[in-house]
Amino acid sequence: MQRRSALRHALAASFIALSLLPGFARAADTLADIQQGWEVIRYQTPARQREKAFEQLADRARQLREAQPGRPEPLIWEGIVLSSWAGEKGGLGALGLVKQARGLYEQAIAIDARALDGSALASLGVLYAKVPGWPIGFGDKTRARELLQRALKINPQGIDPHFFYAELLADEGQNAEALGHLDQALQAPPRPARQIADTGRREEIKALIGKLQAAR
């Protein structure tokens, strides 16, 4: 019995050592893995490490999307990861990433615009709101407003669509209306298994409320 136990421990140790080697095949990611990975990077990882972490997560998200063709959810999450990577990268080098993300969101919308409570619509709206306009990029505030309003119709109590729409309104100087949507965002019900994201988003909401109130 002792020999068998020792053998099991040796095999387990060998597997752990192998799993740390570059290129070792890891278990296939689930959508929850990508989601959780994004939350940890976005809200709990030091800023200097986020770009590389999002780059690595993007590869995992791509593999998940390729393993589940025709499903809107992996398309959405790969788009979210690419958008976040672009945000950390910044500059003209990020344009290729946001264009990829736009294509993924558009594919997801074509399959099912209501998937993940309209997240593809909301995320695409954010891209149109924040990406520079022509001739540099494809940014378009009018298009952003249309997409975010569609997302709000699908998910009228959601923390994200209210926050994203408030950001757009604030950028356009509509502070009173933005504050109204921020208040609704704070009242959004908690999302199952999204505590890290909810906590981080609420901090962003409070920061924007403080900024807008100070500007009065």
Automatic annotation (TrEMBL):
InterPro entries: TPR-like_helical_dom_sf (IPR011990). Pfam families: TPR_19. Residues 1-27 form the signal peptide. Keywords: Signal. This is Tetratricopeptide repeat protein. It comes from Aquariibacter lacus.
